[in-house]
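To: structure subgroup
Subject: Chain for Friday's discussion

All,

I'm putting the inputs and outputs inline so they're searchable in the archive.
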Amino acid sequence: MHTWYEQAVFYPIYPLGLLGAEKTNTLTETAHRLTELESWIPHISDLNGSAIYIGPLFESCTHGYDTKDFRLVDRRLGSNEDFARFVRLCHENGIRVVVDGVFNHTGREFFAFQDIREKREASPYKDWYRGVNFGWGSPLGDPFGYEAWQGHFELPCLNLRNPEVRQYLFDSIQFWVDNFNIDGIRLDCANVLDFGFMKELREKTSAMKPDFWLMGEVIHGEYNRWVNPEMLHSVTNYELHKALYSGHNDHNYFEIAHNVRRLEAVGRSLYTFVDNHDEDRIASKLNNLANLFPVYQLLFTLPGIPSVYYGSEWGIEGKRSRTSDEVLRPALNLSDMLGKAPELASHIAALGKIHTENDAFHNGSYKELLLTNRQYAFSRSGEHGTVISAVNNDEQPASISIPLPCAASDVVSLLPGEIPFSLENGRLSVTLPANGGAIFKLQEV
């Protein structure tokens, strides 16, 4: 039996952007914007999404990652009661909810940091942050120095080796489970988090909920250092993210296939994506927008847990500048967006349905069947059958002959539309559309 997260199709949301919240949190009253998000639940279901990653969520001063209060939903979004209702509605519609856990650092308005500012050496929280030094002051006027995330002194780094800090964070997670009934956490900056902390986090959260999911943001490094039975269930697959767009721009499917082979040991557990709140939209990365179709097919059929960043189902563009990520996190009105790019949205919905209905994609084995610069075919096999996925990044249709990974009496085309194919002598002959693909379920002998 597969876990919910092995079967999941994620829909990531940056709520401060999507809901058009103020850039700086100066509100004295709560803005109940989360109620607007409730209308997105049917849309996510229509895309065959089964999980939402939403974050950052908790009270902060600006962009959401400068946390002020771990136990209060950001007032620019709504109240704790608003979010509890949102999660309940998601669960009623078969959608799991994962939130951002920003545990590497806080904002300077966090109570422990403010106490150190006021009491200096007498503060009981003076060991809650890394590198606290009362012999110098920070560039922001704090009467002490400290380690800051990548030199951003508005983000002081927590001392995760301090048992009091760990317990405070574990108690906060228990608060989220008890009050919101969340299903997992995405760990911000997991690549720099203390390994001992993450091991204890796995123990604590597994006791809170047996199927609680931990996914870490890791950009570089060997992923199995984080993804293992003692620590995290998954991390972000930035390697595949890069390969998916450059492999199409360069007409080089060898890059993608090499990446999949290299990550075979851990790749089925990885969180896969083509864009997110930190990366340019995939529609702004591809040289040929027609390649959105094979890109998304690979996202949904290669090993991993696929995700579609809010708005990208309509092919919206967005390219970060040197100083701002805001264009990657736009406010969107659902009623204005529905009906845009109908072919792409329908394609993604069809892929979500195929992924959901075929257990071959839920941690199933992978086998490379055919590989050229512009065509690529592979199989995924699970307890209930084998599926072949084939893609073409050429501007012309491509006729290919794919060796079957097992004996089969027939195949069934799973994507909508007519795809010419034939089955003979253990090979599947198919004509792939230009910048497109096909997916077949084998009728095994």
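Points worth raising on Friday:
The longest strand covers residues 436-444.
Residues 219 and 238 are 6 Å apart (CA to CA).

D.
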